[in-house]
Design a protein that fits this description.
The complex is a heterotrimer.
Chain A (H helix, E strand, L loop, with lengths): L2 E7 L8 E7 L8 H15 L21 E2 L2 E2 L21 E5 L8 E3 L2 E2 L2 H8 L21 H11 L6 H5 L6 H12 L8 H14 L10 H5 L7 H16 L12
Parallel strand pairs in A: 1-5
Antiparallel strand pairs in A: 1-2, 3-4, 3-5, 6-7
Helix pairs in contact in A: 2-6, 3-5, 5-6, 5-8, 6-8
Chain B lengths: L11 H11 L5 H4 L3 E5 L3 H13 L2 E5 L17 E2 L11 H11 L6 H21 L24 E2 L5 H18 L3 E4 L2 E9 L2 E9 L5 E5 L2 E4 L20 H8 L4 E2 L4 E7 L22 E5 L16 E2 L1 H5 L9 H13 L11 E4 L1 H7 L1 H19 L8 E10 L2 E2 L12 E3 L17 H23 L10 H20 L5 H16 L5 H21 L11 H25 L23 H4 L1 E6 L8 E6 L14
Chain C lengths: L1 H18 L6 H13 L1 H32 L14 H4 L1 H21 L11 H10 L1 H28 L8 H28 L4
Helix pairs in contact in C: 1-3, 1-7, 1-8, 5-7, 6-8, 7-8
Classes of the chains: A alpha+beta, B alpha+beta, C mainly alpha.
Chain lengths: 258, 637, 201
């Protein structure tokens, strides 16, 4: 099988980039897209050309490392599939493929198809947790959680943090990512004590990182490899609006507790 | 080198309590004066870094991924064991302890395993408090499933993504500490060497994978939670980035390496389809709960599975092991798959595969029930193979999955270098010669949340730790060593790519040190690895420079270490002339082909000491004593 | 955005109901217009509320557009939309065009400088005179098309912005939004079409 690749090559974060055309006849329909790039890279190295840099790790669709645009679609044409699990049998022999990195100012390109998604970590650090230090919490079954609620929390918790939602959004919004964590924790009793402060801090951090706003367009859920619904964004909006209205001015004594 | 396992002795039920009481404590006000380095951010490293941050230590945490959330623990699917006995089916801490020692084929320390079983209960409580969305029953209680090697249902799970959810719990706790300023995170930073001063671990040398900067970090203690080394086989279920460099460098600085040949081969992976293949995909072992494993009775039967009538199928696990059936431990399931394929009864184009058939379960429970239990796994299988497992039986084959071996540690999880602690898969662990399913997550979190916070405090409070400056000669020498090595790798400019060497190494390892091992094969492997390693240092082609993102350079450094580790694994496998757990020496088997242990000669943990490049390492033995679970021939019949 | 959008959408529905009286006859329509003018407080109150809503709607649009362009400074060489509607992706285009139309519409029928015969006392006559000019009538129909495209996404998603999304109701809300937008389009367009066809004269 033969494929033509047009790949974004950019040497460093500050260097200008451009699309470069490569061709390989050593493709196989059973290969994954990343294995196709492995094969292409082996050919490039042998020719003395620096290989294409792309992020990847588990190659089974769960770590969230990989991801780039294929012909203008985040993670390529197959729904609910990351590029590491996208096999070439979904493309035609001789097809031309355009590979570009995620594009968002909050995801600066580091090199070729690799971007920096540290902004996602900072959103989680702002409040995407339950504050329970390791120690002796109550017995796990002391907290009864109805199965449907637990299932919905799990639907939201399935987010792998790949960034496809941002990449596909015409506004480069991170609302699906942020909403997923707010929903996961907000649906469970453990998440209630910090539900308001979580929504406030995470949404403000998201805005501060330079992501765009949500225009209810829905491209994010269409490309999400875990099929997370924009229902989570509605929930984020609801929690954020409620918390904003009732937010009290900071009083000096409250924070330290000591 | 003297191995002191520091096993507390006395009644096993109270051993850990006694140890915790006897441990010295660090006063809360003094904790912030200590710097602790944690390398790795998976279940073990991430939970340790978060917990030590909560306690008040100054923690620096390092990972090579772009975010701590991507550590390979995330890929664990099936579940986590805990002796909660929520099902009222006869489980207890003692039973989990017993199953784990027996499952590990009597090659683990009893006291460590008992503590692991005790902590298992706290892990579930902790994870639930963090908001981990475990599967629930309609009444709101936690759900359990059964898993290979056990006859009780003690496995907690979050769909097929248990590792992901537990890791995200630890990651979120870690991010909370990062936000609080207690932990400083260094993502995209790879540990390349350990700094040892006056016999104590005092820091690490790292490479910033974006700028290429080689940096040194000094601390009062170093904790490695850097995972396993299954990628020495090139094809494994490990993430592509998983590597042995951190533990290998520590080994070369004086930490003993325990049981390097103990590797686990997972029975339910998607078979290899071609040379380009870059990794193997695991299908959760939980599939064996409802799937039946079979091959055709006749050799070379090329009919499609639905054309083979019931009486011409061999459900070989059910036939050979009537009491455990398809739920025999991983090593037994893997070996039997290899055996039927060696007989020429394998299925699929390569004939290296067996069927995992859900036909009976679907007709008994309905497709919906099966979809609810395994939907995401079935989807994944179909995505990769283009076959619909609801209609056609899955094809599976064993693959390298986990390494029970790792750096040797004592009961306090400290290596033979004082101040160097090793947790999770990176240590030689509590699993002996074979790990039971759903026990890796348990061990990583037990080490990180509930053991290291106590034992590290004891070390810091009792060791005399001097101030060290960045200009100390040992620090400078370690940094210079890494700079030279990097320069050397970039300067070879040979003809072969790093991957081509790695694939060749992996093939040697799989053929000679894989599911079945023989003395002549291992000897041959050692000499082939040595010559391949020489060729690597003469002919590898690494383009680009150090001062940039250079994935070929990263890989080259890791593969260089894999050569050396692979040789040690073969050496260990050669020395251990018995079959136990995942280590199967063809010379040591019963007449009907079951693994035969040799307790008289091999009831010990092997700990290898580095003696210099091109020197034979020295083997030390830690004898294993069994006071509670008496070694017997494992039988799952 | 959502709140002001809803206010404006509410006005549009009211405006349509008023306008449709043109089909009853000249006297009813002119009487309705006359009646509105007499309700000074209500008229100016509504006008003020609308003005504020329009201003806020535009202001937030400008803000969001600025954020949008700074959030993705480098555009994709290739971009393929997956499921999103044409309406949702073109809100930034349909909005300003509709705004320009409203300005013209006010000049045309409220102030009377639209370029067609105008008599302040005879709104019915003004409408008929205005829509007798085919290009003007067509422009109105096209503007209504854009307005309703804009409304369709706005109505379908304002509840989402306000935090309401439920698998049982959201699909129905989306369907209702399309129906309402379609009816509004048909309603408004029927007037110029009727004038052109000579049904209203």
């Amino acid at each position: 099988m033969r494929l033509v690749f047009h790949i974004w090559r950019q040497a460093t974060a500050s260097a200008p980039g451009k699309m470069v055309r490569y061709e390989s006849a050593n493709m196989n329909p059973d290969m994954s897209m990343l294995e196709a790039l492995d094969v292409l890279n082996e050919e490039l190295i042998t020719q003395g050309t620096e290989p294409v840099v792309f992020e990847h790790d588990c190659r089974e669709g769960i770590c969230g490392s990989c991801g780039f645009m294929i012909n203008g679609i985040a993670h390529g044409p197959l729904a609910r599939t990351t590029v590491c699990q996208l096999t070439l049998r979904h493309f035609k022999d001789g097809e031309e493929l355009y590979l570009e990195p995620w594009r968002a100012s909050a995801f600066p390109v580091l090199k070729d198809l690799m971007v920096d998604r540290a902004s996602f970590d900072r959103i989680i650090a702002a409040g995407g947790y339950c504050s329970v230090p390791a120690g002796s919490p109550q017995d796990a079954n002391a907290l009864l959680i109805p199965k449907p609620e637990a299932d919905r929390a799990m639907d939201a918790a399935a987010c792998i943090g790949c960034g496809a939602c941002v990449a596909a959004c015409p506004n480069a919004s991170a609302s699906l990512f942020t909403g997923a964590k707010i929903t996961h924790l907000g649906l469970m009793p453990q998440g209630q004590p910090e539900r308001e402060i979580r929504a406030l801090r995470m949404v403000r951090q998201m805005n501060g990182e330079g992501f765009g706003h949500c225009g209810n367009i829905g491209e994010c859920e269409a490309v999400c490899p875990k099929g997370i619904s924009i229902e989570v964004i509605a929930r984020m909006n609801r929690d954020f609006a409620g918390a904003s209205i009732t937010e009290r001015p900071k009083s000096g004594a409250a924070e330290d507790g000591a | 080198m003297k191995l002191d396992s520091k096993i507390p002795g006395g009644p096993i039920e109270t051993a850990w309590d006694r140890t915790r009481f006897e441990n010295k404590l660090v006063n809360p006000a003094n904790k912030r004066k200590y710097e602790v380095i944690v390398v790795g951010s998976g279940l073990a490293g991430g939970s340790a870094a978060a917990t030590l941050g909560e306690l008040g230590y100054n923690v620096k945490c390092f990972c090579f991924q772009d975010s701590p959330r991507r550590a390979h623990s995330i890929a664990a699917q099936g579940g986590i064991n805990a002796a909660k006995n929520y099902q009222n089916d006869g489980d207890s801490i003692y039973r989990l302890f017993y199953d784990t020692v027996k499952g590990g084929d009597f090659r683990a320390r009893e006291y460590n395993v008992y503590r692991l079983a005790q902590n298992s209960v706290n892990i579930i409580d902790q994870a639930v408090a963090q908001g981990v969305p475990f599967a629930r029953e309609y009444g709101g209680t936690l759900a359990n499933r059964s898993f290979g090697g056990a006859q009780v249902s003690r496995t907690f799970y979050a769909r097929g993504q248990t590792g992901q959810q537990l890791l995200l719990g630890a990651y979120q706790a870690l991010e909370r500490q990062i936000d609080a300023g207690r932990v400083k995170m260094f993502p995209r930073t790879e540990m390349l060497d350990l700094i040892v001063i006056d016999g104590k671990a005092r820091g690490i040398v790292t490479r910033n994978m974006v700028t290429g900067a080689i940096e040194t970090h000094i601390a009062d203690a170093v904790i490695l939670g850097t995972g396993g080394y299954g990628n020495v086989y090139y094809l494994s279920t490990n993430a592509k980035g998983s590597n042995c460099t951190a533990i290998w460098r520590a080994y070369k600085r004086g930490a003993a390496f325990g049981n390097p040949c103990f590797t686990q081969i997972h029975p339910t992976c998607i078979p290899v389809s071609g040379d380009y293949q870059s990794k193997l995909t695991l299908m959760s072992e939980s599939l064996r709960n409802d799937g039946r494993i079979w091959v055709p009775l006749k050799k070379g039967d090329k009919r499609s599975p639905e054309q083979i009538p019931e009486n011409e199928r061999d459900y070989y696990l059910e036939r050979r092991y009537p009491s455990f059936g398809n739920l025999v431990p991983r090593d037994v399931a893997s070996r039997n798959a290899k055996a039927v394929c060696d007989e020429g009864r394998g299925v699929g184009e390569t004939a290296l595969g067996v069927y995992l058939d859900f036909g009976a379960a679907i007709s008994r429970l309905g497709e919906d029930k099966i979809r609810e239990r395994y939907g995401n796994l079935f989807e994944m299988y179909e995505r990769i193979t283009d076959e619909n497992p609801y209609k056609v039986p899955m094809r599976i084959y064993p693959a390298i999955h986990y390494t029970m071996g790792g750096l040797w540690v004592d009961y306090n999880l400290q290596s033979t270098i004082p101040g160097l602690f090793v947790i999770g898969e990176a240590n030689f662990s509590d699993h002996g010669a074979n790990r039971l399913g759903a026990s890796a997550l348990m061990q990583g979190l037990s080490d990180g949340y509930f053991i290291i916070p106590y034992t590290l405090g004891n070390y810091l409070a009792s060791a005399k730790i001097d101030k060290v400056s960045d200009s100390a000669p040992e620090v400078q020498a370690a940094r210079a060593g890494i700079q030279d090595r990097t320069k050397q790798l970039l300067g070879i400019n040979g003809k072969r790519t790093v991957d081509s060497f790695h694939r060749e190494l992996g093939k040697i390892m799989w053929d000679e040190c894989g599911m079945a091992r023989t003395a002549p094969g291992l000897e041959k492997a050692i000499s082939r690895i040595q010559s391949l390693r020489q060729e690597f240092w003469k002919d590898v082609k690494v383009l680009g420079k150090n001062e940039e993102i250079n994935q070929s350079l990263e890989k080259a450094g890791r593969v260089a270490d894999f050569f050396e580790l692979g040789e040690l694994m073969c050496r260990d496998a050669l020395t251990r002339n018995e079959s136990c757990g995942g280590h199967f020496r063809e010379e040591s088997q019963t007449p009907d082909g079951e693994a035969m242990r040799d307790d008289a000669n091999f009831s010990h943990a092997s700990a290898w000491e580095y003696k210099g490049d091109n020197q034979t390492p020295e083997l030390h033995k830690e004898p294993l004593e069994f006071h509670y679970v008496h070694p017997s021939q494992r039988s799952y019949k | 955005m959502a709140v002001t959008g809803v206010v404006l959408a509410g006005f549009i529905v009211g405006h349509l109901l008023g306008n449709l009286q043109i089909f009853i006859g000249r006297d009813t329509f002119n009487g309705y217009a006359e009646g509105l003018k007499k309700l000074h407080v209500l008229l100016w109150g509504t006008r003020a509320a609308l003005l504020v809503s329009v201003a806020l709607h535009i202001w937030s649009t400008i803000q969001l557009a600025a954020r949008r362009s700074s959030a993705r400074p480098v555009a994709y060489q290739k971009y393929t939309a997956q499921t999103s509607s044409y309406a949702s992706r073109t809100m930034y285009m349909s909005g300003p065009i509709v705004a320009a139309f409203i300005v013209y519409h006010l000049l045309h029928f409220t102030i009377g400088v639209g370029g067609t015969p105008y008599d302040a006392g005879d709104p019915y006559g003004n409408v008929v005179a205005g829509f007798k000019v085919i290009p003007v009538a067509l422009a109105y129909v096209i503007a209504m098309g854009l307005l309703c495209l804009h409304l369709r996404h706005g109505l379908a998603s304002f509840l989402q912005t306000l935090g309401v999304n439920h698998p049982a109701y959201t699909p129905k809300i989306k369907l209702a939004a399309s129906l309402i937008a379609g009816l509004i389009f048909l309603g408004f367009s029927s007037i110029p079409v009727a004038v052109m066809a000579g049904v209203v004269s």
